[in-house]
C-alpha cells in the first residue's frame, strides 16, 4: 500500500490548489436553521478537518462549497471566485447551470456512500467526467484513469463493476473518479462512515497521501486520529455554528469550549 | 463400499467411530400425486375434445395459417406494433422529463396530456382521428382525408395513446434511481442531457423494462382494434376471409395462434433485455 500511495502525491502535486473563503453563510431546511452564520478560511494546500455531532451542519456546509446545496445568504468562494453566483452591487445572481457545472469540475467531491455509477465499469466511472465535461479524448482519459487506479492500488479492477468491489475499494475508486478532473480542491463527506471498520484504514491511507501532496482538502469525518495526524486546522461545529477552530493540538488536546470537550470525551 | 469411508473417518478424527449422521427424509405428500393425476386427466380430456371436435376445422386452420393475406396482415401488425412502441416511448420519455422538470408549465402540460389520453377509450380516440376531416377539412391547403389514410390514423391514434402510458412507466423508472446518482453526476460537472442519457435512464431501465414488456405485448394485441377503421392487420385479414367463406372459428384460431406465437417470442426477448440492464447489480463475478 505504501508504495502505491506515495505515487498519488506525485500525480496530484502538479495541479494548482485553491483557497476557500466562506462568509456568514446561512441555510434553512424549512423551519430548521442548519447553518447559522459560518465564516471559514481554508488556505491553499491546507487540510481542514471538520468535526461535530450529527445534525451540526457540517455535511451541509461541505455541500454548499460546490453548490450542491444553495445558501440562503452569505458567500462561498473558491480561489477568489464566487461559487454558484455572480455578484452585482449588493445582489447575488445565481449562475446558469452550465457555468455552475464548469465550476464543479475544479472541485472534487467524495460522498459517504460513494455514489459510483453501478451500471458502468470502474474505468468508465472514472473516464466519464473527463470525457464528457472536459472533452478529453477517450484514449487519453483512459490512460490517465488507469494511472489513477494504479495509484489507489486497484489497477486490476478497471473492468469490474462497482458492486463487485468491497466498500473500501469502491471508495478508493470514487476518490480516483474525483481526482480524474484534477481539481484544486477536494471535499470529503464522511468518506469512511459507510465502511466496515477493517476497511477504514485503506481509504484513510489514500486520503493521507493526497493531503501530503498539497491539494487543498476539507474533510468531514468522525475519525479523530486521522484529524490529529493529517489536519492543519480542525474545525468543531455544533448546531449550525463553528464553536472553535485551530491546530489539532489545540482543539483536540486542550479545547477552550465546554461543548468541544464534551464531544471529544464521548468520541475518544 | 463402507470400508473406505470407515477408515477415512478413523484417520481423520480422534473421536471413536461414531454412527453416521442422521439422514433427512422430506415429508411424503401423497395428496400431491392425486391432485396432479386429476389435473392431468382433465387437461387430457379437454385436449381430446379440441382435437376430435370437427367444428374446430383444423384442416382449414392449416390451409390459411400461412396464406399470403394472413402473412401480410401479420406483417402489418408487427411493424405497426414496433412503430407505435418506438414513437410512443420516445414521446413518453419526453413527457416524463417534462413532468419531472422544474418548469411548472411543462409539468402541467405533461400531466394534462397523460390525464386526457388515459381518460378516453382508445376506440373513441381512433374514431376521432378517423373522422378528423370533419373538424379540420383541410390542413395547409391539403384535404385531410387525402393526407391521413387509415394506416396513418392508426399510427397517430395508437402512438398518442401509448405515449400517455409510456410517460408514467418512464417517470416511475426515473424516480427509482437513487438521488445520490444525480448528485454525483452534478458534482462531476456532467450536463443535464448527459446525466439523463448516461446516468439516469440506463439505471431507470431496470424498472422500465418489465412494465414496458407488458405494454409491448398489450400493444401487439391492442393493434387489433384498428380493424374497426379497416386497416388490414392480422385480425382484419382473417375477418376478410371468413366474411367470404363463413369459416369463422378456424380463421379466428389462425389469428389466435399467431398472436400466441409472437407474444411467446417477445416474452423470451424481454428476459434477455432484463438480463442486459441488470448488469453491474449482481455480486462477485
UniProtKB/TrEMBL annotation, chain A:
ABC transporter domain boundaries? 20-264
Q: Which GO terms describe its molecular function?
A: ATP binding; ATP hydrolysis activity; ATPase-coupled polar amino acid-transporter activity
Q: Among its keywords, does the record have Nucleotide-binding?
A: yes
Q: Which UniProt keywords apply?
A: ATP-binding, Nucleotide-binding, Transport
Q: Which domain of life is it from?
A: Bacteria
Q: Which reaction does it catalyse?
A: a polar amino acid(out) + ATP + H2O = a polar amino acid(in) + ADP + phosphate + H(+)
Q: Name the SMART domains for this protein.
A: AAA (SM00382)
Return the EC number.
7.4.2.1
Q: Is ATP-binding one of the keywords UniProt gives this record?
A: yes
Q: Which PANTHER family match?
A: AMINO ACID IMPORT ATP-BINDING PROTEIN, PHOSPHONATES IMPORT ATP-BINDING PROTEIN PHNC
> What protein family is recorded?
Belongs to the ABC transporter superfamily.
Protein name as catalogued: ABC-type polar-amino-acid transporter
The species this protein was found in: Streptomyces gardneri
Query: In the record, what lineage is assigned to the organism producing the protein?
Result: Bacteria, Bacillati, Actinomycetota, Actinomycetes, Kitasatosporales
TrEMBL record, chain B:
Tell me the InterPro entries matching this sequence. Answer: AA_ABC_transptr_permease_3TM, ArtM/GltK/GlnP/TcyL/YhdX-like, MetI-like, MetI-like_sf
Q: Which SUPFAM superfamilies match?
A: MetI-like (SSF161098)
Note the topology in the membrane. Answer: Multi-pass membrane protein
Return the Gene3D superfamilies for the record.
MetI-like (1.10.3720.10)
- Where located? Cell membrane
- Output one GO MF annotation: transmembrane transporter activity
Where's it mainly located? membrane
What's a Pfam family in this record? BPD_transp_1
Enumerate the transmembrane spans: 33-51, 71-98, 110-130, 248-269
Q: Does the keyword Cell membrane apply?
A: yes
Q: Which UniProt keywords apply?
A: Amino-acid transport, Cell membrane, Membrane, Transmembrane, Transmembrane helix, Transport
Record-given protein name: Amino acid ABC transporter permease
Q: Which organism is it from?
A: Streptomyces gardneri
